[in-house]
Amino acid sequence: MTSRRSFLKTTTLASAGLLIRPSELWKAPATNIGLQLYTVRDAMQQDPVAALKKVAKLGFNTVEGATYTGTQQFYGMAPKAFAQVLKQQGLKMPSSHYVLGEQKMNGADVKGTVLHEWEKAVEDAATVGIKYMVCAYLFEEERGNLDHYKQLAEYFNKAGETCKKAGIQFCYHNHDFEFQQQEGGKPYDILLQQTDKDLVKMEMDIYWVSKAGLDPVALMKEHKGRFPLWHVKDKDKTPQQDFTEVGNGSINFKEIFKHAGDSGMKYFFVEQDKTPGDPFVSIAKSIKYVKKNLV
Length: 295
Fold this sequence. Notes:
Shape: globular
Order of helices and strands: HEHHEHEHEHEHEHHEEEHHEH
Radius of gyration: 18 Å
Strand order of the largest sheet: 1-2-3-4-5-6-7-10
Distance between the termini: 30 Å
Structural class: alpha/beta
Number of strands: 10
Strand content: 5-15%
């Protein structure tokens, strides 16, 4: 299984032709049980139609994309063709992941990113029916000091304006590095404070917030309505605090889901970056827990 960093770099390389392959108590409607497709990324690369069929059969009704970046296609398919595949499987994709594009590949700008040909990315997203376009990750070279995060906030505001014209919401997805203290503050605070709260929302990755030592509920209450998207990803009970199936770890999702109203949550996506074996076995365990305990 590939890491998120190498996965994003791989999908980015595709653009250069190096790889072409395709609150209050709240209760979610069953139609909104989502899966972040990064969890089944190998299967999606090998045969996206078959993989989506298996995802739907397990009971997921929504998915979040992970591989537009660089290829300017969705899993090797043009937007209209991919939208048709989703429809055939009874799936919707309200959200999809993208990268910043500050990092170059072979000295060239990467298309279909926040900084390069974003308008085309927004147009393609609208064709698929995507409602949330999410900057998924900052490569190490794209992070830097707090002044650089202020520049990123400007980029995100501009990207959010472009999204808004198409009826799409721009979001930023956290890991844990954004919560690391720097001289003068934390990067995540800069992003929250210096982006327009309407143009730039946040996708809360509950695992990474928890691993950074923060309370997801406290963050939701402090910034009400700022988190329309969640990654529901559990943290195991070992000293390594690694990824595990939802309900198999230490995160109290039952309590967190009570505060979805504070969060402004509209969609959540089960995600497990690494699985001990077949990822479809792991997500089957996760959705079983979700259906029994969370929706």
